[in-house]
Amino acid sequence: HFEFQSTRLGPCKIRGISGQFRTTGSTLRLEKSALRLDPVGAIEGNAEVALGSELELPYRIEFQVRKMDLVDLFVSSGREKELLSGRLLGAGVLTGHLYQGLPLLTDAEGTVSLHAREGKIHQELPLFVAIAVASDRFDPFRYREEIPYLAIDLVGQLEDGRLHSVFLSLDAVSLGLVVSGEVGVVAPYDAEA
After folding, report:
1. Contact at 8 Å (CB) between 155 and 113?
2. pTM of the full predicted structure?
3. Are 17 and 5 a contacting pair, CB within 8 Å?
4. What percent of the chain has pLDDT over 70?
5. Using one digit for the tens of pLDDT, what is the confidence trace for 110-138?
6. Which pLDDT does position 57 carry in this prediction?
7. Which of 164, 179, 91, 167 shows the shortest CA–CA distance to 129?
8. Which helix (H) or strand (E) holds 134?
9. Where is pLDDT greater, at 74 or 155?
10. DSSP secondary structure string, 56-121?
11. Which of 47, 63, 71, 161 could share a disulfide with 30, CB 3.0–4.6 Å?
């Protein structure tokens, strides 16, 4: 069993990491692990890292998120503004390589499935603008600052530092859309819809 107390992991504010570890040959496995975010919430999963190279360390991560509040996730990520609220559930499998001095997701590939429920999309989020342009039912005078939603579902493919939506749907009281797009997961964090 291991437990590390920490305040940062890259740009994210965290409370620590815990779980179980074991090694087989040159492979390190982290099992039943939890990345505890600050102020609250956790990302749980398993990770496997092939040790032995000085230049790159291949990894595989399986993760899940259960009932995380999106506001807490934005606070943990260091964002000053809340862009999206609601409850988040999801899971994913990512593979890539760890390189000294580069972000974890630099060359990551994999699939993620994220589901947000009962929240609001705030005007600062680029998705807000994309919805306004794409929808013939969107009334910008009714929603000046935010759009309330019932469900947002995303199945995405991570590749080349970008998350590409395979399927993205938005279910709101007066609005329903199925759109596609992509967003950068490493700098620059630009979005296209």
Report:
1. yes
2. 0.80
3. no
4. 78
5. 999 999 999 988 776 665 555 555 555 55
6. 96
7. 179
8. helix 126-134
9. 155
10. -EEEEEEEEEEEEEHHHHHHHTT-SS--B-SEEEEEEEEEEEE-TTS-TTTT-EEEEEEEEEEEEE
11. 47
Output the CA angle 2-45-82, nearest 5 degrees: 105
Token representation of residue 18: 């815990």
CA distances from 87 to 35, 70, 74, 151 (A): 18, 6, 12, 10
CA geometry: angle 117, 118, 122, nearest 5 deg = 100
Two structure tokens written together for 12 = 């994210």
Contact (Cβ atoms closer than 8 angstroms) between residue 34 and residue 16: no
**Locate tokens 């990894």: which residue?**
59
SS3 181: coil
Query: What value, to the nearest 5°, has the Cα angle with vertex 120 and ends 115 and 123?
Result: 120
